[in-house]
Specification:
Order of helices and strands: HEEEEEEEEEEEEEEEEHE
Distance between the termini: 62 Å
Largest sheet: 14 strands, antiparallel, barrel
Low-confidence stretches: 10-22, 136-141
Oligomer: single chain
Number of domains: 1
Structural class: mainly beta
CATH architecture: Beta Barrel
Strand content: over 45%
Strand order of the largest sheet: 1-2-3-4-5-6-7-10-12-13-14-15-16-17
CATH topology: Porin
Helix content: under 10%
CATH class: Mainly Beta
Radius of gyration: 20 Å
Shape: globular
Number of helices: 2
CATH superfamily: monomeric porin ompg
Length: 303
């Protein structure tokens, strides 16, 4: 069993090295975690809420990617919203924790259509487990000496975003990180340092009424990173009676997932996604990916 797990580590890191420009965590429940990437979502729905998302990738593989995300949002005025987000991301030998404050401003285009402009400001801490490289036999200790001197302190960040929303559709565009910094890179089994690259996110969705109680809610998330091309997640979901939603997601990165969302009460939503890889070299040696989302909605303060 250890042989198979080590084999998966080698394969995963080789794949991860070739796709390493994709440096930010992805979510199967992306439609409900947009605050993590677009500051314009901060209180855009006019509510105060606290959301947590836990994603564990490649179950049963030691040191496989895990992400914990928390964000809080509340309106300050009729047109101004604020949000606070914390994202802790562990990927093999790396650990990153981001802290950001989001501000959004609403511009009303019509009675049913608004556009929100957002600004994200904050930073992240970054740490590398130097001893972790020894776990990968293919590496043979060939580590760039500069890796030992990589800056693991606090790194400032600025991001921007825009969000167009209507009763029936939405379009989101954002660049959550504009300031570049160094990090570890894996390329063909060689460990060195590389620059983080800006991620561009374009997302959209439409809600089709199939009946008084059933909606068809297709959506997509397109990601672009310089040097890594374009990747897209496509989701087809059905919502019943505004209380239950089920869907399937497929990514051009050869990843699939099934998703469900429950509106358990006016004050609480629960979501779950289970996914896997269409690559046989990965799907054979792990038990898939789990993602759990819990959102608490707070009542509006009375005047």
């Amino acid at each position: 069993m250890n042989f198979y797990k080590n084999t998966l580590k080698i394969v995963a890191l080789l794949l991860f090295g070739t796709l390493y420009a994709q440096q930010e965590p992805n979510y199967a429940l992306y439609r409900y975690t947009m605050n993590a990437i677009n500051p314009a979502y901060a209180a855009a729905d006019g509510t105060t809420s606290l959301t947590s998302n836990f994603r564990s990738q490649w179950i049963d593989v030691q040191d496989a990617p895990e992400t914990q995300t928390f964000f809080f949002q509340t309106p300050l005025t009729e047109n101004l919203g604020i949000g606070l987000s914390v994202v802790n991301d562990n990927v093999f030998v790396e650990n990153r924790t981001s802290f950001n404050v989001d501000f959004s401003y609403k511009l009303q285009l019509s009675e049913s259509t608004n556009v929100f402009l957002g600004l994200k400001a904050g930073g992240r801490t970054y740490n590398v487990d130097q001893g972790g490289f020894s776990n990968f036999s293919f590496n043979s200790g060939q580590i760039d000496p500069a890796v030992a001197n990589i800056d693991t302190g606090f790194r400032p960040n600025i991001g921007i975003g825009a969000y167009l929303v209507n009763d029936k559709y939405f379009i989101s565009l954002s660049v959550p990180g504009l300031l570049l910094s160094e990090r570890v890179n894996v390329d063909n089994g060689m460990v060195s340092i590389a620059n983080e690259k800006a991620h561009f996110y374009l997302s959209g969705g439409y809600n089709f009424d199939l009946s008084d109680k059933v909606e068809f809610r297709p959506s997509t998330m397109v990601r672009y990173v310089n040097g890594n091309g374009v990747a897209a997640d496509m989701t087809a979901a059905f919502r019943y009676n505004q209380r239950f939603e089920a869907g399937v997601m497929y990514s051009t990165d050869s990843v699939w997932a099934g998703t469900i969302m429950f509106n358990l009460a006016d004050w609480m939503d629960f979501g779950y996604a289970y996914g896997g890889s269409a690559r046989s070299e990965l799907s054979t040696f792990n038990d898939g990916t789990h993602e759990i989302l819990v959102r608490f909605n707070f009542p509006k303060a009375s005047n």
